[in-house]
Design goal:
The complex is a heterodimer of chains A (110) and B (702).
Chain A (H helix, E strand, L loop, with lengths): L2 E6 L2 E6 L3 E2 L4 H12 L4 E5 L5 E2 L1 H16 L3 E5 L3 H9 L7 E3 L2 H6 L2
Parallel strand pairs in A: 2-4, 3-5, 4-6, 6-7
Antiparallel strand pairs in A: 1-2
Helix pairs in contact in A: 1-2
Chain B lengths: L1 H6 L17 H21 L2 E5 L5 E5 L8 H8 L4 E6 L2 E9 L7 H28 L4 H14 L5 H11 L8 E8 L2 E7 L8 E2 L4 H8 L3 E3 L13 H4 L3 E8 L4 E9 L8 H48 L10 E8 L8 E8 L2 E9 L3 H26 L6 H18 L4 E9 L4 E7 L4 E5 L4 E5 L17 E4 L5 E5 L1 H4 L10 H12 L4 H16 L8 E8 L10 E7 L5 H14 L7 H22 L7 E8 L3 E8 L23 H8 L2 E7 L2 E9 L8
Antiparallel strand pairs in B: 1-2, 1-4, 3-4, 5-6, 5-10, 6-7, 8-9, 9-10, 11-20, 12-13, 13-14, 14-15, 15-18, 16-17, 16-19, 19-20, 21-22, 22-23, 23-25, 24-25
Helix pairs in contact in B: 2-4, 4-5, 5-9, 6-9, 9-10, 10-11, 15-16, 16-17
Classes of the chains: A alpha/beta (110), B alpha+beta (702).
């Protein structure tokens, strides 16, 4: 999955450009995201393009959160599509992640 | 005062027959009036009633519920035996004492009401006696008597009323004898006389008075010379010196004969006497007719009630609203109960969007019994379908099996009630485009084929239900096409008659269907009803009219696939195709529109299931086959994934952790929350996971 990183001051906004984050695409996502967030502390995932996430995808995003947290950083998520948000809620991840409706809201929250 | 009078009297414990000569006419009449009113009440309350005349003599005692000995002595103390004095037009007629086994609430009130009603009856009787005295003098007074009798008819005492008339004959001369003979199917029955006993009934043929009834001509003879004309049985008139016999009849009916005779030469039957006797005869005829009409009206009322009950049964129990939601067919039904309720019934069983069963039946016999048998049979069909579904684990059990089951259940009951039921059980399958039916002696179904523009009749050779438990029922199948019309009906339609006695018939019905098959079923049926009403020149029919019209819509194309299959490789890159498979199944197998969450949740479930199989059954090694099958089953979608890899035991899986500490372990939890049922199975080296999700009652957004 191709990732686009943009910097807003000290916050890195990562846009997931693929529609699907499942067991098939997750390994590519993992190797890409590790490069992208390696030197970052404050990261926002823009998920507006992602229509499908499965448990592997959730696991990968969770892994990013834990990695950033362990280094004193933070991960926020914005613009979830309806089916993806439904999955987050099903596995209670909306309580683990800071989720925002829009990117602006996410940026303000740092 | 009464108590004082009565206390002086020693009451006999057992009553011997006593002469009525000590009592006044009024007292006797009052006693009779009491008798008419009291009997059912006494039976109910297990009490007795004693009537003492003004002189304190016991005149009559009614009921056997309680010993009446010494009751006068007790009544004043405990009030268990209330007493009621009787006054009629200021004249003291004695007292009535109610003797109860125990204290009855309201017994005093009851007693006074009873005496009041008996006195009212006495008043009416008085009025009537007065009118009878005037009898023969004017038509007006006769009419008045007639009206009075109509009122008195509520007592249903025809004999009593006629008895009074025969007593009037005494005014001609003390020893004048009179008998009323009432005709009942070729016999004359003596029903009222003035003190002549041991009269026997006699046939109309071969007796003299019978001949008067037949000819309807009076016979008057002041000095009989030829006694040979009397029949052997007519001993009572053999000694008659003068005899008059009058037929008792009205314009509506001939009822019987009044015979009046004297054995000695007392008073000549002059024109005045003849007029008087004629008037008596006329009055008797009217009394009988009133009684007859009254009885008829009660019968009619009962019939009317029966009709109303029957029509309610028909509406509630025997017919159902046709299903409207089945795409591809239009169904309409009509039932018009006739004056005699038949046991026509119909019902529908809707299995899914592609399959509907129709049951039409007709119970042999009429009235409420037939209607109830119809309701029972209909009910039995529904039960048998459910039973067979459970037993055979099949959504749609075969029609022949259903009918056999019902026959088995119903036959002995039907034999006991001396009835049988003709039935046509039909199943329309829109996927197979077929009509499968079991015809059990029912009227033939009409099938109109639009392409050939031809009608044909569908007929089987099964026996009706209720002939034999061992009967084997066979189903038949025909192909149906879009635009075809099916018409199920009861014989009330083809047997509707016009004024010439000609029936509507199969041909007229078949022609009608051919010409009207293009119409909507609802319109076709209402047109048919118009046609039948015009034909029969009536709006009421001899038999129930029942019909069900079904039209297969012209532009209807159901998806012929009932199953969708896909083979996938054990490779994660197939996950996208698996999700596409869900979307295809939803599109092609399911004709209804689904909420987007239904598909989204199923896509998620299949992704998780396939991922599990690839990782755990095949250790993420590609080159292994996984078979996906989607099917629509009882209002839901089922998708199974079958493979020959390692088996999987879901009970060994760890529970999900939601605190963010673990990145995996959500798969099974997600599957079980996205679909309604998940089953794992293993069969000869093949492992399957089967997921089922209902269309309706969809889970809310995850």
């Amino acid at each position: 999955m191709k990732l686009i990183k943009e910097k807003y001051e000290n916050v890195a906004v990562v846009t997931l450009t693929g529609e699907v984050l499942d067991a098939n695409t997750v390994s590519e996502f993992k190797s890409e995201i590790n490069n992208v967030i390696q030197s970052e502390y404050h990261v926002v995932f823009d998920m507006s393009k992602v229509n499908f996430v499965d448990s592997s995808g959730i696991g990968a995003i969770l892994s990013c959160l834990r990695k950033l947290n362990s280094e004193g950083g933070d991960l926020k998520i914005c613009a979830l599509t309806k089916p993806v948000r439904a999955l987050f809620e099903l596995v209670r991840m909306h309580k683990i992640f800071d989720i925002f409706n829009t990117l602006d809201e996410a940026l303000v929250a740092f | 005062m009464i108590g004082q009078v009565l206390e002086k009297i020693d009451l006999p414990i057992e009553f011997e027959e006593f002469s009525t000569s000590n009592f006044s006419q009024l007292e006797i009449q009052f006693s009779q009036a009491l008798e008419r009113l009291i009997i059912p009440v006494l039976q109910w309350s297990k009490s007795s009633l004693a009537y003492y005349s003004a002189k304190g003599e016991l005149l009559n005692i009614f009921g056997e519920g309680c010993h009446c000995d010494n009751m006068v002595g007790k009544n004043t103390r405990n009030n268990a035996h209330p007493e009621q004095p009787v006054f009629f037009n200021g004249e003291f007629l004695g007292a009535v004492i109610l003797c109860c086994p125990r204290y009855l609430k309201n017994s005093e009130k009851f007693l006074s009401k009873l005496v009041e009603n008996a006195l009212l009856d006495l008043t009416r009787q008085e009025d009537e006696e007065g009118l009878l005295a005037e009898l023969g003098t004017s038509w007006e007074s006769l009419q008045a008597v007639y009206d009075l009798h109509a009122d008195l008819n509520s007592f249903h005492n025809l004999n009593n009323l006629l008895q009074r008339i025969t007593k009037r004959v005494n005014t001609i001369g003390e020893e004048t004898k009179a008998v009323f003979w009432l005709c009942e199917t070729d016999y004359l029955i003596p029903i009222a006389t003035n003190n002549i006993f041991n009269l026997i009934e006699r046939s109309i043929d071969g007796s003299f008075i019978g001949s008067i009834f037949k000819k309807q001509q009076s016979f008057i003879c002041n000095e009989i010379t030829d006694r040979k004309k009397f029949g052997d049985e007519e001993s009572e008139i053999k000694n008659a010196f003068r005899l008059a016999v009058f037929p008792v009849a009205t314009r509506i009916n001939n009822y019987g004969v009044l015979a009046v005779w004297q054995e000695k030469d007392i008073n000549v039957f002059d024109s005045h006497t003849i007029n008087f006797l004629n008037t008596l005869t006329m009055q008797a005829a009217m009394i009988i007719e009133t009684d007859y009409l009254h009885t008829e009206s009660i019968k009619n009322e009962k019939l009317q009630q029966e009709l109303e009950i029957g029509s309610t049964i028909q509406k509630i129990l025997l017919t159902e609203k046709p299903p409207e939601s089945i795409c591809g067919i239009k169904i309409s039904a009509l039932t018009i109960p006739s004056q005699k309720i038949d046991g026509d019934f119909y019902d529908f069983i809707e299995y899914n969007d592609d399959c509907v069963d129709l049951i039409v039946g007709d119970v042999m016999g009429k009235g409420i019994p037939a209607a109830l048998i119809g309701a029972a049979t209909k009910n039995c069909f529904l039960r048998s379908v459910v039973q067979l579904q459970t037993l055979e684990k099949k959504l749609c059990p075969a029609p022949e099996k259903i009918v056999s089951w019902v026959n088995n259940e119903m036959t002995n009951k039907l034999i006991r009630s001396e009835s049988f039921v003709t039935v046509c059980y039909a199943r329309i399958d829109l996927i197979k485009k077929s009509l499968t039916f079991v015809d059990c002696g029912h009227t033939k179904t009409i099938h109109y084929n639009q392409r050939k523009q031809k009608t044909s009749v569908l007929e089987g050779d099964n026996m009706p239900l209720g002939f034999s438990v061992r009967e084997i029922f066979k189903e038949q199948s025909i192909k149906v096409e879009n635009g075809d019309f099916l018409f199920f009906f009861s014989d009330g339609i083809t047997e509707a008659k016009n004024s010439n006695g000609e029936i509507f018939g199969d041909q007229r019905l078949s022609d009608f269907i051919t010409h009207n098959a293009w119409q909507e079923p609802k319109i076709l049926i209402s047109e048919l009803l118009n046609t039948l009403e015009k034909f029969a020149e009536a709006k009421v029919f001899q038999d129930d009219l029942t019909c069900v019209a079904i039209r297969i819509e012209e532009n209807f194309e159901p998806d012929v696939e009932s199953k969708l299959c896909l083979e996938l490789d054990s490779n994660l890159s197939e996950l996208g195709r698996a999700r596409e498979f869900v979307r295809n199944a939803a599109k092609h197998l399911i004709k209804r529109s689904l909420e987007s969450t239904f598909i989204e949740q199923f896509e998620l479930a299949i992704t998780e299931a396939l991922t599990n199989i690839i990782f755990h059954a095949f250790d993420n090694q590609s080159g292994n086959q996984i078979e996906l099958v989607a099917e629509v089953i009882s209002d839901g979608l089922q998708i199974s994934l079958t493979h020959q890899g390692n088996s999987f035991d879901p009970t060994q899986a760890a529970a999900p952790v939601f605190d963010g500490s673990r990145e995996g372990g959500f798969g099974l939890f997600i599957i079980s929350n996205c679909v309604d049922r998940v089953t794992y199975s293993q069969d000869s080296g093949k492992n399957s996971i089967c997921m089922y999700k209902k269309f309706s009652n969809q889970k809310e957004d995850l």
